[in-house]
Structure formats: C-alpha cells, structure tokens
Design a protein that fits this description.
The protein is about 65% helix and about 5% strand. A two-stranded antiparallel ribbon has the order 1-2. The N terminus is likely disordered. It is globular and about 60 Å long. It is mainly alpha-helical. It is built from six helices and two strands.
Length: about 160
C-alpha cells in the first residue's frame, strides 16, 4: 500500500475541505427551502425528520429536534395548520399518535427542491458508475462518522 501524498501536493484534492464546505452549504439550503415554503428553518428540519422516520409522534420529533415537548407540540400544530402534516393513529398501537406528511407537503417540497435535485443529478451523471460507487461509499462512511460523533455524549464541563 502506498503512502498518501503530502498534504501540500497541488495535485491532491482537498477532500476534507470540500466536505466541510458541502456540510456548511446545507444550512443555506435549509434557509432557502424554508423561504420557498414559507416556513421557519426548524419547521423544515422537522419535515426532514418526518421524511426519514415513519413512526414519529410529537414527543419523538421533539427529542430529535432537542426541544421541549410543549415546543414540539406547538411546532406540529403550526405544520398541521399549514397543511404539511396530519396526526394519525399508530398502525399497531392505537393509543399512540404519529405524524404523517401530507401529499401537498411532499409536492410543495419536491417542487421547491427540483432545481437543486436536477443540478445534482447532472453532477452525478458526470461520473462513471465505478466513480459513483466510490463517491457513494465515501459519503456513506462520512455519514457514519458524523452520526457517531453526534451520538457521543458531551464531555464533562471543564473545572
């Protein structure tokens, strides 16, 4: 196995910096999406969680957003009033209420994201299938590293 090239090698891509810039850009994307949907950024982040998790109740959503249950309830009320979510009975536990994205929320978000998704699709198409597999492997591994970091408990306060 060859040693990595020196960091000051001008031919070596700065992957770490490119990833840092990409991650920073996600905040701008959330801001833009919020403006396009007429929502707050926390509302957009909540909707993203509901896309990723199918059986979240208001309290579960509050835990993911790291907000109190009263704030989570207010947020869900706001999203429900705007027609983005609805409260439904849990499919197997009728005592629980879970949140479901409405079709109109999916349609509005899809339309708002379409230009960005199209541009990303064009970028992906620039790479060969083998390169795409390498990129996907890198992004999956980077996601695992970020998730592990986020799951770590905070260090004890300095004395």
């Amino acid at each position: 196995m060859a040693l990595p090239e020196a960091p000051d090698d001008p031919d070596r891509p700065d992957v770490a910096n490119a990833l840092r810039v990409l991650l920073a850009q996600t905040h701008d994307v959330e801001d833009t999406l919020a403006r396009r949907l007429g929502l707050g950024v926390s509302d957009v982040i909540a909707l993203q969680h509901l896309v990723d998790h199918t059986e979240l109740g208001p309290v579960d959503l509050g835990h993911l957003l790291r907000i109190r249950s009263a704030s989570a309830t207010a947020l869900v009320d706001r999203l429900q009033s705007a027609g983005h979510v609805r409260r439904v009975r849990h499919p197997t536990d009728g005592r629980r209420v879970v949140l479901a994205l409405t079709d109109s929320a999916r349609t509005e978000a899809g339309a708002a994201l379409a230009p960005m998704l199209g541009a990303l699709g064009a970028v992906i198409a620039e790479f060969t299938p083998d390169e795409q597999r390498s990129i996907a492997r890198f992004l999956n591994r980077a996601t695992e590293a970020l998730a592990a970091f986020a799951a770590e408990p905070p260090p004890p306060p300095a004395r």
